[in-house]
């Protein structure tokens, strides 16, 4: 596993949203209500960019079809056909940076 730094802690604040590309992964780092989350950047249903979605009360809503996912574990919050859970990654803190551990 390798640490990939994403952002300096001092740059994070509520409303923060930034997309990152690491190899083939498109990741979205967000901070809302004091919590920081790292999730896949596209909706697993049809690939719509989640950076355009709304986040409130620990829920990510896709702007295309209004599918809602828990930011904690990516679980869909309604019965949805042909849509898997949203992938989320645990964050790692090293010094003054926040990042993610991914396979080499």
From TrEMBL:
It holds the Pfam family Rieske. PROSITE patterns: RIESKE (PS51296). Residues 3-100 form the Rieske domain. Its cofactor is [2Fe-2S] cluster. GO terms for molecular function: 2 iron, 2 sulfur cluster binding; metal ion binding. Keywords: 2Fe-2S, Iron, Iron-sulfur, Metal-binding. CDD domains: Rieske. SUPFAM superfamilies: ISP domain. Belongs to the bacterial ring-hydroxylating dioxygenase ferredoxin component family. This is Rieske (2Fe-2S) protein.
């Amino acid at each position: 596993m390798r640490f990939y730094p994403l952002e300096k802690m001092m740059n994070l604040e509520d409303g923060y949203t930034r997309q990152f590309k690491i190899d083939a992964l498109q990741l979205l780092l967000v901070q809302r209500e004091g919590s920081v989350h790292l999730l896949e950047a596209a909706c697993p249903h049809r690939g719509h960019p989640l950076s355009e979605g709304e986040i409130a009360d620990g829920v990510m809503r896709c702007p295309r079809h209004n599918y809602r996912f828990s930011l904690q574990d990516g679980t869909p919050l309604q019965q949805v056909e042909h849509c898997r859970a949203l992938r989320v990654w645990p964050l790692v803190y090293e010094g003054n940076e926040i990042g993610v551990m991914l396979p080499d």
